[in-house]
Amino acid sequence: MTPLAVAQAALRHYPVDPSATLTMLNISENATYAVDDPVARRRTVLRVHRTGYHSLESIESELAWLDALRTDAGVRTPQVLPSVYGKRVVSIADGAAEPRRVVLFEHLPGTEPPDDDLERAFGVLGGLTARMHEHALRWRRPPRFTRFAWDYDGALGADARWGRWQDGMGVGPAERRLLGRLDATLRHRLEAFGTGPDRYGLIHADLRLANLLVDDSGTFVIDFDDCGLGWFLYDLGAALSFIEDDPRVPALIAAWVDGYRSERPLSAAEEAEIPTFVLMRRLLLVAWIGSHADTDLARGMGEQFTAGTCTLAERYLSDCLL
């Protein structure tokens, strides 16, 4: 079944009028649809999970953290809307060995922060990120909580979740040699940085401005589909996704760090390692583009993204030798 067919079948499990319409909002790892119910005069958001990306227990674990952040830490997250049978995750059989999982969320107000004041937005983002990290450190996870890890192996190594960077667009022999040096350096520095509880734990893992919604009442955080265990500073690397070579990046990092420190300590040693996490995320995105070549975003980035990554890699490796 197509994602749309799965979504249409899933609506029968929710208190939604049969006349409700589905409008595609986004397709990446999952397919996300706006559901407009003309009878209830309400919009909701339906997420159709990709087969094989998350288990039922993993999705339920994500939703548990959403609830806890909202109730314990005051971080505004979308509420999950249960089916008519009280289920938060609906399973739709589509002929495959594993059913498709579907979740219905409330529709939140607001829009992505505007580009005309990025430094201020990154400051807000840094503060929100610190509050989420602090909550993750204190939160007692429920039984059977399970999420994957964005450690070296899960990101770039033997269990690379988004595929191998070596299979990225435009990765030829010269690029493979340079990015191989980057990979080895990242692995060494991550091992040296360590996974102490003050710097490694439960993270959003895609905490970009695109996953914030801002309106007059405040800021919401959405799209926790990639949340898992990882380095806290990886959330900053993710915040800079696709703009790592923008000349404003040093100012954006400074604003993020200031916002973060307003909520949680960040040592000088941790701050010094920020470039490692920016390049880790960038190399991971080379892999993502290669494994998602059928998406509009990947096609738009293409080989130029790999070339830009090589430029950033040369600069980072030179700095590491100083």
UniProtKB/TrEMBL annotation:
Family matches, as InterPro entries: Aminoglycoside_PTrfase (IPR002575), Kinase-like_dom_sf (IPR011009), Pseudomonas-type_ThrB (IPR050249)
Domain of life from the UniProt record: Bacteria
Chain ranges of the Aminoglycoside phosphotransferase domain: 29-265
SUPFAM superfamilies: Protein kinase-like (PK-like)
MF terms in GO: amino acid kinase activity
Protein family: Belongs to the pseudomonas-type ThrB family.
Name under which the protein is recorded: Aminoglycoside phosphotransferase
